[in-house]
Specification:
This protein is an alpha/beta fold and 132 residues long. The chain has one domain: Hypothetical Protein Ychn, Chain: A (3-Layer(aba) Sandwich), CATH 3.40.1260.10. The chain is built from five helices and five strands. It has helices spanning 16-29, 60-71, 79-84, 90-95, 112-120, and strands at residues 2-7, 33-39, 75-78, 107-110, 124-128. Strands 4-3-2-1-5 form a five-stranded parallel β-sheet, sandwiched between helices. Helix 1 runs parallel beside helix 2 (60-71). The longest helix is centred in the first third of the chain and has 14 residues, at 16-29. The radius of gyration is 14 Å and the shape is globular. The relative contact order is 0.27.
């Protein structure tokens, strides 16, 4: 089976990114696949390389990077939600004349159409967190 995951909440305010990661690991271990992981609303903060949680806490950014690298996952950050929250790629930083960018390696910006496309290509779409 193939799933698309949608994460709505930020790692600092919710366990949703952690729960989604645990689900993704179990889903993949069971022989299933993941079409795409889409970070939306406050979930886009997961893609910010500038966050530095304490060493004894869950580092959602690094954990998702590692899982994506090991399993060739497509990690997509909603571009509209990201720009509103200060998460941007080098290209977007230049386009909006911002002094820096903070989108982590392994994550990419994309639109809601990519979520729709992934959901259409999946057997299941599973959401984590709350969309405020």
């Amino acid at each position: 089976m193939k799933a698309t995951l949608v994460i709505y909440s930020a790692p600092i305010s919710s366990r949703a990114p952690y729960a989604a990661l645990q689900f993704a690991r179990a889903w993949l271990a069971a022989g299933n696949s993941i079409e795409r992981v889409f970070f939306y609303a406050d979930g886009v903060h997961t893609g910010a390389a500038s966050a530095a949680p304490p060493r004894d806490e869950f580092d959602a950014h690094c954990e998702w990077q590692s899982l994506a690298h090991d399993n060739s996952l497509d990690l997509v950050i909603c571009i509209a939600a990201a720009l509103r929250r200060g998460v941007c790629s080098a290209e977007e930083a230049a386009r909006f004349q911002r002094p820096c960018h903070n989108l982590g390696e392994g994550f990419r910006l994309g639109g809601l159409g990519e979520l729709v496309e992934a959901s259409l290509n999946s057997d299941r779409t599973v959401s984590f967190g709350r969309h405020a």
